[in-house]
Design goal:
Low-confidence stretches: none
Mean pLDDT: 95
Largest sheet: 8 strands, parallel
Radius of gyration: 17 Å
CATH architecture: Alpha-Beta Barrel
Distance between the termini: 25 Å
Helix content: 40-55%
Number of helices: 9
Number of strands: 8
Number of domains: 1
Strand content: 15-25%
Shape: globular
CATH superfamily: Alanine racemase
Oligomer: single chain
CATH topology: TIM Barrel
Structural class: alpha/beta
């Protein structure tokens, strides 16, 4: 059995243990974040039937996944990195989910290209949960206005919220803040939890975990 398959199975066991121990109702989807990993590292997961994969760059996604999407029809690709508005059209073509909707210009472009291409993308609003200057995302005090712009004016398919807590912080605190924000908007999906804190994310109600290192090991780039 390939190492990445063993690691994914281990993660699934850990998730099941957490859910059973706390009697949780939500079983999160695992997004295997494959940025910088070649297809030969990813194929074992495709062959075992895993369908959710994440990338953070348009160019890498194009070169890596276009042919694969034709072969594996159930494949679901997630954009988990910063998305520039000038790449919005390619993002709509390539991805089924976008986790990094963070400004009005990008929202407008996504709406334009969804209409042009006849495709609806599942979108998460990225929230700058700790108001970090170096990070993208909508601030909490602007979230309601931005959500209304996306849904009422642009008719975008907003399915949830996404956040990345500060490095070496108490993730639980920020996950709980995001959960409360999602409840106020009647959103049921939360994209939160990475390899270092996915256990806490599950306890906080995450529905999508973005896991790279936990499945593929450390990146060389």
């Amino acid at each position: 059995m390939h190492t990445c398959v063993q690691r994914l199975n281990f993660v699934k066991i850990k998730i099941k243990e957490i859910i059973n121990k706390k009697q949780l109702k939500t079983i999160p989807q695992i997004i295997a974040v494959t940025k910088s990993f070649p297809l030969n590292k990813i194929t074992p997961l495709l062959e075992m039937g895993h369908i959710h994969f994440g990338e953070n760059k348009i160019q890498e996604t194009e070169s890596k996944w276009l042919g694969v999407k034709n072969k594996y029809k159930n494949l679901q690709l997630h954009m988990v990195g910063k998305l520039q508005s000038n790449k919005a059209k390619k993002a709509v073509i390539l991805f089924d989910y976008i986790h990094s909707l963070d400004n009005a210009k990008l929202a407008t472009k996504l709406n334009q290209y969804e209409k042009e291409l006849g495709k609806k993308t599942k979108l998460f609003i990225q929230v700058n949960i700790a108001e970090e200057r170096q990070k993208s995302g909508v601030l909490l005090n602007d979230l309601n206005r931005f959500y209304n712009l996306c849904t009422k004016e642009l008719s975008l398919n907003i399915i949830g919220l996404m956040c990345m807590p500060p490095i070496n912080s108490d993730s639980k605190k920020y996950f709980q803040i995001l959960k409360k924000a999602s409840e106020k908007l009647n959103l049921t999906n939360l994209s939160m939890g990475m390899s270092a804190d996915y256990g806490q994310a599950i306890l906080s109600g995450s529905t999508y975990l973005r896991l790279g290192t936990a499945i593929f090991g450390a990146r060389s780039t």
